[in-house]
Each structure stands twice: as C-alpha cells, then as structure tokens.
Specification:
alpha+beta; D-Maltodextrin-Binding Protein, domain 2; three-stranded antiparallel sheet; globular; disordered N terminus
C-alpha cells in the first residue's frame, strides 16, 4: 500500500502527540510454528521482498522473534540467528512487480540462501500472483481455519485463487471513511457532529448538495480529480475484464460525470492524489471540506499533512498543531475500501516453517493485532480485537476525541471484493490519467475515451474490445 509521509520529524512528533487511549494491549504471541509444510527449518536467511518499509516496520516492531535490527535496517536478526534480508523496490512505474517477476523466474535455480521466502502484494494486482504457481497455499504452510477465524472474509477473498485456494494473508483491513474538517462543517452545515454530518452526506445527491453549499461559503468539497474515485470504483457491478473484453462500469462513468461537474463549477481544486496542492489542501490553510481515506491514510498521510511546519529563529524545524483536532470522520455516501498489503509465501522457499510463523504471529494473533492498533491506529485484521477497541473509551486526539475504530468496525462489514480482478491497478490508473485532460477541458469526452482505450491496450495487448454504458 502506498503511504506518502512527510519528513520523519513530522511523523515522529505527530505520533507522539496524537492519541489518548484507555488501556494497553498485550504484545503476546502464539506458540512457535511446528512445521506443517515442505521446506522444514531450512536456511539461515529469510528473504523478504516489498515496495516500502511499511511491513518492515510492522515486522521489526511486533514480530516477537526479532532480536536486533541493523542500523541501516537492511537486515533483521532473529532470536535463533536467522538473518532477515529486506529487498525494497519502489512501486513507481511497475518497478516492484518487474523486479519481483524477474527474481521469481529464477527461484528454482538460485542457491537456497538467495531464494525469495516472502513477498508482499497489493489488492490491485494480488490476483496476478495468487493465480500463479509463485505463491503457496497458506494451509500447506500450516495455517488453519481456526487460526484465521477472526480475519475479515474480504481479506481472504482477495488472495484466494480461481480454485478456491487461499495464497496469502494480511495483518490489516482497510475500510474507508470520509474525513472532514470540523470547522468547515460548522460553517457550511451548522454542526460538526459526525452523526449530523453523515446525515447530510448519506448519498451522492446529498453529497452534491453540500458541495454547492460549501462553494457558496468559499470552500471546495474535494481537493481534486481522484479523491472520490475509489468510492465509485469499489461499487462496480462486475470486474473490469471478461475474456478479452473491457467493460467500463456505469459507476466509473458516474465518477467521470461528477468530477467534470465539480471541476467546471469550482467544487474542487484540480489537484491529483499525492501532489503538492492535494497535500496542502489537508493542512491548516486548506479550504477543502473533506477527503476520502481508508485506515492507513487517516493515521499517516492526513495526520502528517494536517500539521504546520515552520522554522524557528534559529532555522530549526518546528511542528505546530495546524489542523490537528479539526478533523472528524463519518461513513460518507457509499462503503468502500482502499489499499492493503498481503503476505505471500513464495513457492520454493527453504524456510516454510518460519514463513508460517510470521503469518501466524503477525496476522492471526489477537494480542499483537490489538497492540498494533493501539500503538499506531492502523486498523488490524482481527474482528474480535477491533470490536473490543470499538467498545472501549479509546479515542483519537487528532480526530477531536472521536473513536474512529468504532466507525471502521461497521464500515468493514460492508466491503465487497467480489468484483476485484487482475487488471484493476492498470485500468484504474489508465482511466484516471486519460480523463484528467477531459476534466481540464483540453479534450472532449470521446477523445478521453479513446485515449483510455489506447493506454489500456498498450498495457494489456490481449484486451481487444471495450464496452461503455449506453
């Protein structure tokens, strides 16, 4: 999952000042793995491939077998002497997948100590690996239905192949919410109460009405072109591709129509995800009503962007509260999810027992899952642990004292992954890119449509025909 963070100083100070929480979950762990898959205890090097340091930090902080971490974080040493070697290749330009694919092709020919043991995948391309022989059945590794009983079903479905075999597991669930500025909601709606704001934003027609009211008050409803995309794309009626035919869902066209309207009427700031305008719009000087964000986005990206960074008289960076405490969350007009990272055991690993133990401790252990959420606000993949936090007096100072875990618990129940497919990442990116010129008035709808089809064929030459809603 992508996480675009501000400077380390901002994040460290932010997390230090963020959360008021009741109680402290234990960091307990399950018993050590006892085998259950071919490969045995194997080599003394565990090779893990990923695209950023998200899983690396979860592993180093919460896997109970960690003994020490190298200063440069390139390796982690476990209690039994095993050295975990981290290979991190950024996602941009398909870089991670390209390098991973190349390495997996050589898996059978390299020495045991060079074999990939674990690699991470995102939801948008998980099926590419799940529906191949590069990934192992988690039950062959030794995980049981009882081990995974508290995990959200959709997190299992994403990494289940066409034969019904589960080929990965994750420590997180990523339901989405709508994060809004309390001060702007008060000005536009007369209240910042999450229940009242939700009532005002309960469907897309109401959302559009609030956008008009916000505009009259001098605010933007959304920052840019892509903000609402996931909320529409997660609610399609069918996968992108059937055979060699691409079907553009009516819900995608609704996103296009809404975004064009918002752009023409000045309801957005013409930004794109992750750009400077988008980041600034979340800060103390931002005039944007709200942002669609899933779990990781709220506690990392939004929090970091909301703070105020300036220099003191000596030229040192200072971090001020900025918009800290001025955000709250509600469900928004439709349920959706965004992102997520899955752990896959690589076929050919010589450390199958250890791969199983990593999966067991970091995705199935209730105490570890609860501790991760209490420490980091990351929403973890254990329904019982999350319900306990939802029912407690746990709260977020960043969100004005709101227990947003309680909202995530409800939102997670509505996630539907039945229409996910192997082409999601490429086609989602292509249609967003192709229609940016249309939103800005540089091309008409038909030209943007043609540009999308061309880009899709370039990425996936096997796709032959395209069907649009009539």
């Amino acid at each position: 999952m992508k996480k675009y963070l501000k400077a380390g100083l901002v994040l460290v100070l932010a997390l230090a000042m963020v959360f008021t929480m009741a109680g402290c979950g234990g960091s307990g762990s399950s018993d050590s793995a006892d085998g259950g898959a071919e490969g045995g205890k194997g080599g003394k090097t565990l090779n893990i491939w990923c695209w950023n340091d998200e899983f690396q930090s979860r592993f180093n902080d919460y896997y109970p077998e960690v003994k020490e971490v190298a200063d440069d974080k390139s390796t982690t040493t476990l209690n039994d002497g095993t050295v975990v070697k981290w290979t991190i290749n950024p996602n941009e330009g398909n870089n991670y997948q390209d390098k991973l694919d190349e390495a997996l092709l050589k898996q059978a020919d390299v020495d045991d100590e060079e074999k990939i043991d674990i690699f991470l995948v995102e939801a948008d391309y998980a099926l590419k690996y799940v529906d191949s022989d590069t990934t192992m059945d988690v039950k062959e590794l030794g995980l049981t239905d009882d081990d995974m009983a508290q995990q959200y079903q959709y997190t299992k479905d994403i990494v289940t192949d066409s034969n019904g075999v589960q080929k990965g597991t994750t420590w997180q669930a990523t339901p989405g919410l709508f994060a809004y500025r309390r001060s702007i909601a008060k000005d536009v709606l007369g209240t910042d109460d999450p229940d009242a704001v939700q009532e005002a934003l309960a469907d897309w027609d109401k959302f559009d009405e609030v956008a008009a009211k916000a505009h009259e008050k001098g605010y933007k409803m959304l920052s840019g072109f892509d903000d609402a995309y996931r909320t529409f794309s997660n609610n399609v009626a069918a996968p992108w591709v059937d055979g060699d035919k691409v079907t553009v869902d009516a819900n995608i066209v609704k996103w296009i129509d809404q975004t064009k309207t918002y752009t023409d009427k000045g309801y957005n700031n013409k930004s794109s995800l992750w750009d400077d305008t988008w980041n600034a719009d979340q800060g103390p000087k931002g005039k944007v009503f709200g942002f669609f964000y899933s779990t990781w986005g709220i506690n990392f990206t939004l929090l970091g962007n909301s703070l105020e960074t300036k220099e003191d008289e000596g030229g040192k960076a200072e971090v001020g509260n900025g918009a800290f405490g001025d955000y709250a969350v509600c469900y928004g007009p439709q349920p959706y999810y965004w992102g997520g990272t899955w752990i896959c055991g690589a076929t050919g690993t010589d450390n199958a027992d250890l791969v199983k133990d990593v999966m067991l401790k970091l995705t199935c252990d209730k105490d570890i899952m609860k501790k991760i959420t209490e420490d980091t606000q990351d929403y973890t993949n254990n329904q019982e642990a999350m319900q306990e936090i939802a029912d407690s007096d746990f709260s977020s100072d960043f969100l004005g004292g709101q227990n947003h875990i309680a909202l995530f618990v409800e939102a997670a129940k509505n996630i539907d992954m039945s229409n996910a497919g192997a082409y999601d990442q490429g086609l989602n990116e292509s249609i967003q890119t192709a229609f940016r010129d249309y939103f800005e008035g540089k091309v008409d709808f038909e030209k943007a449509k043609a540009n999308f089809e061309t880009a899709a064929k370039e990425k996936y030459p096997e796709l032959k025909t395209f069907e649009w809603p009539k």
